[in-house]
Amino acid sequence: MNRFDYVRADTVAEALAALATPGARALAGGTNLVDLMKYDVAKPTLVVDINRLPLKQIQRAADGGLTIGALVTNSELAW
Amino acid sequence: MDHLADLLRERLQFTGTKKGCDHGQCGACSVPIDGVRINSCLVLAVAGDGAEITSVEGLATGPELHPLQAAFIEHDAFQCGYCTPGQVCSAAGLLAEGHTHSRAEIREHMSGNLCRCGAYTNIADAIEDVMNQGASAREAAE
After folding, report:
1. Does A38 touch chain B (CB under 8 A)?
2. Which of A6, B39, B88, B118 is the most exposed place for a label (fewest CB within 10 A)?
3. Are strands A58-60 and A66-68 parallel, antiparallel or unpaired?
């Protein structure tokens, strides 16, 4: 795996600012990014961990739809 | 940079956690992080900073096996045993989640843990046994 810097974002604004860096990639569950990094397919210079952002809610919308947060996992959604 | 699976095995010497596929597909490296089971081969160790992680070594209470460990032995729920720590950790997570109430659901909710020996029938037996032991066992699994 290549060398990279790691930063954990606490706010969405912080994440967006970090992700504006050339070579930056967002890290959530890691099922794609970490796997690809192991074989140097993905080579981010900066990994921005977004797992602690408050984006884990599933909310019912007034029109009957659902708003699914970007960090909701497949298993959480399946329940 | 280490993955959590490497950190546990190579640096902390908790070699109960197994590395199978190293791609998050086989479940051998399953451990709960803050109570949620994950594939530790896909987690950067640094991302687990401050989290509570219980590997298979932490399930037993002294010489007293965790009910799932006892049930796996009772039901002969393995052949080679390589996937077993991941199966047991995943099953503990399954019980803690509390969504599983039938054998079919056990099979579905354990589908991330592969067993190349094909001990699925006995693995499901073991988990079903502990699940049926009721709420007290469920609390112990947490």
Report:
1. yes
2. B118
3. antiparallel
